[in-house]
Amino acid sequence: MAESLPEHERILQEIESTDTACVGPTLRSVYDDQPNAHQRFMEKLDACIRNHDREIEKMCNFHHQGFVDAITELLKVRADAEKLKVQVTDTNRRLQDAGKEVIAQTEEIIRCRIQQRNITTVVEKLQLCLPVLEMYSKLKEQMNVKRYYSALKTMEHLENMYLPRVSQYRFCQIMIENLPKLREEIKEISMSDLKDFLESIRKHSDKIGETAMKQAQQQKTFNTALQKQNNVNYGRSMYVINGRVPEPKCEITSKRTLEEEDEHEEEVLTAHDLVDFSPVYRCLHIYSVLGDGETFENYYRKQRRKQARLVLQPQSSMHETVEGYRRYFSQIVGFFVVEDHILHVTQGLVTRAYTDELWNMAVSKIIAVLRTHSSYCTDPDLVLELKNLIVVFADTLQGYGFPVNRLFDLLFEIRDQYNETLLKKWAGLFRDIFEADNYSPIPVANEEEYKIVISKFPFQDPELDKQSFPKKLPMSQSVPQIYIQVKEFIYASLKFSESLHRSSTEIDDMLRKSTNLLLTRTLSSCLQNLIKKPHIGLTELVQIIINTTHLEQACKYLEDFITNITNISQETVHTARLYGLSTFKDARHAAEGEIYTKLNQKIDEFIQLADYDWTMSESAGRASGYLMDLINFLRSTFQVFTHLPGKVAQTACMSACQHLSTSLMQMLLDSELKQISMGAVQQFNLDVIQCELFASSEPVPGFHGDTLQLAFIDLRQLLDLFMVWDWSTYLADYGQPTSKYLRVNPSTALTLLEKMKDTSKKNNIFAQFRKNDRDKQKLIETVVKQLRSLVNGMSQHT
Fold first, then answer.
1. Which of 204, 360, 449, 783 gives 444 a disulfide partner, CB atoms 3.0 to 4.6 angstroms apart?
2. What's the CA gap between 403 and 363, in Å, rounded?
């Protein structure tokens, strides 16, 4: 109990000295203590309170008088304080009344100062915003007037310089959001302009190409004319075509060309004059500024490749007219002229590697197209115009730096085709000439007509010159016409060789090769066909042989003609020779063979008219009528052969006699002929005698002795054997070189003898009653047996 009292005092001291916020733990200790501690603590607390009350009372009693004095003093001051309050209130009222105007003015000043400060701030902000707005307005104006490249530059300035200063404003955010849209709009607009540009140049490519080709051709003509004018006295070749000497036109051409160049000098147009390239420049700059230049380059090149494929695709009917080819070449030239212009005025959009790749692709396609379409051309004039177009086309593009060697190589292929079309055309001309020819010597009534013929064909014959007019030239009208046409062919072939950038030697070689083709193939074929035609008779064939002889002699003049054109001497090592000699020799040999054939056919026709009575008892005493007609025909025919070379006429005569002999022998030995009487043999002998007389009359000069009569020796010995009935000699001398009947074959004799044996049996039914006839019949049977044994021996020996 005694211990708890000091503890309570301690707690009370803590409560008195501790902040009320921290008294909780102290009070909790009161409750955590011993039982009834709370009551004791409350008692102690009451005692403490009473103690403090006594101290307060003591203190109040001590200070009470001072308090009363202070109250008294306050009561005294109260009246003065009220007076002072009234004075202060009055002063305050008067001061407030006086300060109201000052306050109003002060507030006005403050408001003005605030406005001034705001205005200053606004001005400062406007000074920052106005350039932005001006630039944006400028941007809108540039967009309206389609100055897109400048608009992009303005956007760039806005984004980098102006907008960052005023990025906190709403309108700035709107601008920032609009700028990408404007860029896309510019890209779309510029791309649309580019598409319009691409469409425009696709439409204008042919005009651009036509202009470029025309300028290239004018420049080439001008240079050529200038060169000719400077070298007017050098290398001038004169040659005759169809008897005409062309006048030198160098000076006239030069003057005319120079005048034309002066007239057109101010009218020279370029691709830039014909097409507005600004869209592609703008588009390139725009995409470059936007950092998308590679996309633009790829798009441009892709579209141009597509256009190149379209340009290189020809119309199906291009080969029908030269205008089709001209339009095709103009479009291609226009395309590459535009690409060359783009290459030189832009950087990177078109590169030399790109144009070279595009050109190589185009050249391959062009060559394939020209090979295909030129193969359809059958008109040499069209092929020649195509060649001229290709030359101008190649020269034009070569002037722009494109390699054109493959095009000139293609011209050599087209040259072969041109020659083929020329050969076809000249084949028709030759056929027309041959059809119109009368195949008779050319009559000339006077000197003037003679000179006209000589001017067309190089004919020389001193003997003929000595004859008086009128006279006849040995060749027919087709010879000078053929010669003229061959020269025309050479000239036409020369036209293709011009402007091919080839040497005179190469041109000379081309002309000679093409002329050789004309002679060896075309003219030779026409001659061969002519010779084989049914309506060509012996007279015509003789004239054809004469004609080919003169044409063969004229070949050297054709070589001189080519030499005069090309100025290449025939002595040059690599100079080709004309093969006309072999052509005309072959034609002449064919004509000779045809003469032999037709002559034999005519003989066969006469032989078919033979009408022998093979059972006649005796001959008519004179030769058969058909044979006399045949001999008369042969005489008149061989008279025509006087202009032929001797060997040809002799061969024809020998061939005719041999064929006649063979035909007569076949008539005797014909298997369908069963019986022959001795009278028929005698008649046949009379016909053979006429043949021998014809052979001995020398129908064609040049035969020695009885050479021509030997053609009938087989018939003569056979008929002599039967006419003389010399069987004993025949059988005894058979096989001996000196035999009188050496040419009589046992099988031939047996066949004829059997025909006569059958006739003897049927016509002499009473022969068995006459001794001579019986002996003759026995002799025939004996001879037949011996002949059969000889024939069998020959077959066994064989």
1. 449
2. 9
Cα–Cα distances in angstroms (integers) from residue 538 to residues 12, 433, 544, 608, in the given order: 177, 19, 10, 20
To which residue do tokens 């607390």 refer? 45
The per-residue DSSP string of 727-744 comes to HHHHHHHTT-TT-TTTT-
661 in Cβ contact with 715 (< 8 Å): yes
- Is residue 664 classed exposed, middle or buried when 0-12, 13-18 and 19+ CB atoms within 10 A define those classes? buried
Distances (CA, A) of 452 to 153, 441, 766: 85, 15, 82
- Return the residue matching tokens 């050249």: 363
Cα distance between residue 512 and residue 575, in whole Å:
8
Q: How confident is the model at residue 109, as a pLDDT? A: 92
Residue 576 φ/ψ region, left for φ over 0, alpha for ψ in the -120 to 50 degree band, beta for the rest: beta
In whole angstroms, give the CA distance from residue 248 to residue 242.
17
Per residue in 634-681, pLDDT tens? Answer: 888 888 777 677 678 888 888 889 999 999 999 888 888 888 888 889
DSSP state of 267: G
**Alpha carbon 15 to chain centroid distance?**
123
Closest CA to 526 of 498, 548, 546: 548
How far is the C-alpha of 52 from the C-alpha of 411, rounded, in Å?
142
- pLDDT confidence of residue 788: 84
CA 476 and chain centroid, separation: 45
Structural contact between residues 216 and 399, judged by C-beta atoms closer than 8 angstroms = yes
365 Cβ partners below 8 Å, 6+ apart? 312
The whole-number pLDDT of residue 176 equals 84
Whole-number Å distance between alpha carbons of 318 and 125 = 73
For residues 114 and 122, give the distance between their C-alpha atoms in angstroms, rounded to a whole number. Answer: 12
Q: Is the peptide bond between 470 and the residue preceding it cis, with omega within 30 degrees of 0? A: yes
Amino acid at 756: M
Provide the b/e sequence for 139-155 (b: ≥16 CB within 10 Å). beebbeeebbbbbbebb
Q: How many CB atoms lie within 10 A of CB 774?
A: 12
Comparing CA positions, the residue from 554, 558, 551 lying closest to residue 512 is 558
DSSP letter string, 782-795: HHHHHHHHHHHHHH
3-state class of 241 per DSSP?
Answer: strand
The single-letter DSSP state of residue 473 is E
- Token code pair at residue 656: 């005719």
